[in-house]
Structure formats: structure tokens, C-alpha cells
Amino acid sequence: MPVDSSRLEGFYKLSVSERREKLAEIAGLTPEQVEAWSSSGELSEDAADRMIENVVGTYSLPIGIATNFVIDGEHYLIPFVLEEPSVVAAASNMAKRCHAKGGFTSNNDEPVMIGQIQIVGCEDPEAARGSIMAAKAELVDSCNEVDPILVKFGGGCRDIRARIIETESGPMVIVHILVDCRDAMGANAVNTMAETIAPKVEEITGGTVILRIISNLAVHRLARVSAVFTPAEMVNSGDVGQGSDVIDGVLQAYHFAKADPFRATTHNKGIMNAISPIAIACGQDWRAIESGAHSFAAHERTYGSLTHWEKDSEGNLVGSIELPMAVGLVGGAVRVHPAAQANVALLGISSANGLAKVMAAAGLAQNLGALRALATVGIQAGHMKLHVRNMAVTAGAEGEEVDIVAARMRAHDGRITQKAVEEELAKLRSE
Ligand code: NAD
User: Fold this and answer.
1) How far is the CA of 290 from the centre of ligand 1 (A)?
2) Could you tell me what percent of the chain has a pLDDT over 90?
3) Per the confidence metrics, is the pTM higher than 0.70?
4) Mapped to the 3 state alphabet, what secondary structure does 114-127 carry?
5) Closest to 216 in 3D by CA, of 303, 115, 305
């Protein structure tokens, strides 16, 4: 039952433990539930309390390491933070299957983000657009004066563009500032620049500036990764004929996603199964990445696949992925969260571009994992085998019982259902 009131006056003034006590009282929580919040693991309560507002505790998820990734000739161990079984296993499995042709290859854009400035009330929108373009050099300089550190690191405002859009509130002139954010995700940097030049933009156009904010549709900051999978690598037996059949199945599954947004949405969800968990593991703004990915999947086309799959003249499967990747190693949570720092250290990356290519490669591998499973045994076989440990815990299994019940269920011929897991646990306990 929800609480009687969500109005918690003065809640923000309490200490973290006082907030927990207050919630326990009003929501009737058990001491175990309150304790779960207070076991803060690697993120201290003080650090958590500084990160967001009204903190009552922290929330743990497993960190799993995806193996076998070779990207641009270098090996990576990739941390995933997520709750879903079989994702890490599938990514690791697929990453191994492109080794014969050298692993993944990246070709990312420069880290250029877009800041938008919305101008309304221009008497002559076309003339206003023209005057913005005429003042481009001056506006670029004004942007760069605000962030000398970014400029020092080789970034800064690169270009200014302007267009007119028709809206229900009338025509608007929309200015895009294109900012190379180097190793920052860039939202704060870009927003600051957009706010700084807004008065000058009003002066130049005679209009009124309303919004000044980054766009998460980061079409100038695309991560691109590709890989080649031989037929022999697509099957465990190494049988090339069987491998070719699997490749044909993968292509049919991909063509389905390409032609149908209902399927493409789930297809892209599978890609984000890798990208979002790595984003979380590395302290990134995963909502920014998610929104950018899905809007890019519908950018100037019907919503479709973020990956592309085809067969080359030798019968190999060639996969590629292209999507916006607004990630950073300075700013945001990455410098504040100790586990994010450890995860970035494990990756051994020192640039935002390095993280972007790792995330894109993992997204491509994850996509192949789903397509290959769907086109062959179906997705549930592998998933349920790994999920069965969770089902054993749900059935009440404790300690060793969890693995014994899971192993017995995996050996079963029949479907793995919660009821069957409960029966197996009861049987074990009666032995
Ligand atoms: P930030 O401002 O903390 O860090 C960026 C700054 O670090 C740069 O402006 C630069 O001055 C400095 N810097 C030092 N070394 C650098 C280097 N090597 N490369 C680049 N810059 C360097 O953070 P940010 O990346 O501008 O903003 C990210 C934060 O903004 C995230 O926490 C995100 O959640 C948040 N945010 C996102 C949105 C959105 O996505 N729509 C909106 C608002 C805020």
C-alpha cells in the first residue's frame, strides 16, 4: 500500500540515517529492509549523500566482467553492472567469435556535442538566421572564452549552425553550437556555453532566447564499430556448413528488425543490454546514452536497427554498429564513485573515445548473441539455464541448495518453471 502522504516536510534537512528511520516509520518497513539500504558497500554514505538529494542509502547490483573482447588489436575486460542473467555470458561468448578476423575495429567521430539555443519572436526568421551565420566567428570565440580548460585539452566550440523550424507557437530560429568535448560527456560544458552566448544571440537577431540546452541526439559524436565472424566461429563444432546456416538465420532475424519497428525496439533493447550496464559501471549518464541511441534509431528514418549485418563474398558475417555515444571520463559521477573508478581502471582506458568504442563493441556482440540464439535454439534456453539460480532462491533455496537445485534443473529435459524448481527443492530436502 502506498504511504498516506508523499509530502515529507524537512526531509532533506535530516541525516541519512534519520531519513531511513522516518521512512521505516511511515511505510512500516522491517529492520531488514532498512538495513538493506544502509549497507553501502563501496559507495560511502557521505559520498552518496553528496551525489543526489534526499539520500536514504545505496542500492547494489552485481558487477560482471565480459571477457574475450579484442578491439583495435587490444584486449579488454569489460565491467557490466546489471541484474539480468545471461547478458555477460552472451557478450563474452560472441566477442570470442570474431578473433579469426582480428576482433572489433572502431572508427569513431570526434567527441562533438550539440548545444541548442531556441530563439522566438524574430520579425524575419530568415534574416535572423543569416545574421547568426554572419556572426559565427564571434560566437565561436565567445563560447571558447567560457571554457579555457576544455580549449587547453584540445576541445572547444567548432561550429555554429542555424535553421528555422515551424511550430505550434510559430516559427523559431534554432541555433546549434557544435562543441568538441574531448574527454567530457559535455552537458555542463555545452549548457554553459549556450547560456553565455544567449544575450549576444538576442542582440544579433532581435528575438528572444528561451531554451539553452544540450541535445542528446549527438549525431556528430557517433561511435562506429565493426567485426567479421567466420562461419566456423558461428558454431561450437567449427562445422562451416552449419555455421553458414546460422549466419543465414542471423541475417533473417536482422532483416525482420530492419523492416519492423516492433521487432527493432526489442532488437535495440538487446544492444542496450550491454551499453547501459557498461555506462552504469563506468559512472556515465545512461539516460543520456539511451535517449540518444533510440532517437538516432529513428533519425531521418522509420525507427530501425542500430546495427547492420551482411554476408561478405567469402560467406563471413559482417556486423557493424553506429550510434551516438556521449560518454566522459571527467565530470559527472565517474570521478566521484569509487567502483566507477575501479571499473574504468580495469578497462585501462584514458579517453572518452576509448570508452565509447568499448561500449559500441559490446553492443554489437550483445546484438549478435541475441540474434544467434533467436535464430537457432531460441532465447529462453540459455537465459533460463542461467536464470534458474534466481528461481531457486525465489523458491526458498539457501546456501548449497541453490547450486544443487540449479544443476538438477539444468539437467532436466522439461521446461524450467518456478513450480518445477519448487518441487526439485522439496525433493532435495526430503532426501
Ligand atoms: P563537467 O562540467 O563536470 O566536466 C567537463 C569540464 O571538465 C570541461 O568543461 C572542462 O572545463 C573540464 N575538463 C578537464 N579536463 C578535460 C578533458 N580532458 N576533456 C574535456 N574537459 C575537461 O561535466 P560535463 O561532462 O560537461 O557534464 C556531464 C554531466 O552533465 C553529467 O553528470 C550529466 O549527467 C549532466 N547533465 C546531462 C544533461 C543531458 O544529458 N541532457 C543535462 C544536464 C546535465
Assistant:
1) 17
2) 79
3) yes
4) EEEEEEECCCCHHH
5) 115
